[in-house]
Amino acid sequence: MNFKRNGSTALVAFISAFAAVAVFNYFGLNKQTVNIMERPIQGKYTAYNAPRTEMQPIDFRYSAAASTPCVVHIKSTFKPQRTAYKPQGNDPFQGMLGQDFPQFFHGPNPYQQQPQIASGSGVIVSKDGYIVTNNHVVQDADEVEVVLDNNKTYKAKVIGKDPDTDIALVKIEASNLPTIEFANSDSVLVGEWVLAVGNPFDLASTVTAGIVSAKGRNLNLHEDDVAPGTPNTSIESFIQTDAAVNPGNSGGALVNVSGQLVGINTAIASPTGSYAGYSFAVPSNIVKKVIFDLEKFGVSQRGYLGVTIRTMDDETSKTAGFDHPYGVYVDGVNKGSAGEEAGLKNKDVITKINGFPVNSSPELQEQVAQYRPGDKISVEFIRDGKTETATVTLKNKYNTTAKIDNAMDFLNALGVKVENLSPNELQALGLRGGVKITELQKGKLSEFTDIRKGFIITQIDDQTVNNVQDFENILKDKTGKVLVEGIYPNKPASYMYAFKM
Question: What is the topology classification, in CATH, of domain 64-79+115-297?
Answer without folding.
Answer: Thrombin, subunit H (2.40.10)
